[in-house]
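REQUEST ID: PR-0412
SUBMITTED BY: lab tech R.K.
PRIORITY: routine
TASK: structure prediction, single protein chain
INPUT:
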Amino acid sequence: MKLTANVNIKIKKGHLPHIIATLYKNGMEVSSANLADSDNLWDSYIITAVYSSRKEFNRLVNGLKKVDIVKEIYVSNSLEDIVKGGLILTASKLPIDNRNDIETLIYGATALAHERIESGLALDYLSLSKTLALVSVFKNMKKMTTEHYMVYLESERDGAIISKFLSMNSYPFTLKYLMPEDVIKTIKSMEDSFSIFRFINSGDEGFELYRNILSNISKPVIFKDIDEDPIFLLSVIKAAMKRNDFKAEETTLGFLGINKSAVRATEVLHSFYSMKILGYDNKENIMMTFENSGGLATTIQNVVSSCDICIITDESLMDDVEHFLTPGSLLILCSDGIDRASLQQKGIRDMISINKSEQYMVMILSIRFLLGAGCLNFEANTVDKLSSLLSEYLSEAYSLPSFFAQEYGDLLKKLEGGLAS
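STATUS: complete
OUTPUT:
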């Protein structure tokens, strides 16, 4: 993650190159450096610095305060100023610059839309078709905590991306519930106000809530942890198998840590490819769900020793996992907290890291597909087909193409033209 800050600095004349070199030497970049003021001895600059570690950035700024060529230095974080108040903002499609705009444009547009609605064209003149709900659910939540606020922030983040690349209005909201029926009742009462519901999480009930929502809601529904995450994971697995010449019927997969994404991926791979899939988790209930989806629950040692590809989703298992790894292991790492350097020291060279920050691509493509195809949810065969399509576009580093790349346009054409066939 990269951050930006404006460094307002007053330095002795001629020493700007030294300051810039110091920033780069400490792993930072300079986006711009503009002269703000000058006298016979000192120059004042506004330097836009790009950095990834706030701790290192603050350490450098404090160090520069003690350098004799620096007279003054203070920092204003332009990104932080923008972020205050949230990441999304609902805005008018019509310009509002004066009182006349409100009375003629806004009220005039409303009157026009009223006429069209009365003539039966409501859906053409309302934003319902472009309105998306970003739902997070929490059981027995008494009040909002840091965890809940973090999830809400992630909803805002996704909403900002959806607004930009799908031109849709996204509304985050958090549901407190005691029983799954509470969630279903609330969503049911709101479904006429949204064109699609995207669940950021699936609560404690997971697949039970997922199945109940799909069977009771008449609008398209996507779950991040049960639809989007497995689609991306499966695309990486399929690409890794192809690049290593692994045939499905001869390949054994192993999950170390079984989450909802692993369960859904197992269901797809077992159903369509009859693959042998082993798994371990320290929670008995998720192991039972895994076996009901076609997997075989076993020990960590058996997973590592028996599998051609090991998929590690739980970093807390690594101390036990590392005892059994060999240099020939092919690993897919699904947790940011796994120490790659430690694995490399053990001779492990074949490691694929799933970059979670890129999964917004799957979010956009999933919403595009459901709305475009007129589907209400992701059935297993659709998850399989979409993951196969995405696997064709993964880079050597298993990254999806940027929204701004030609490959993304090609991907969209294939998505719209051939996935459902």
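NOTES: The first helix runs from residue 16 to 25.
REVIEWED BY: pending
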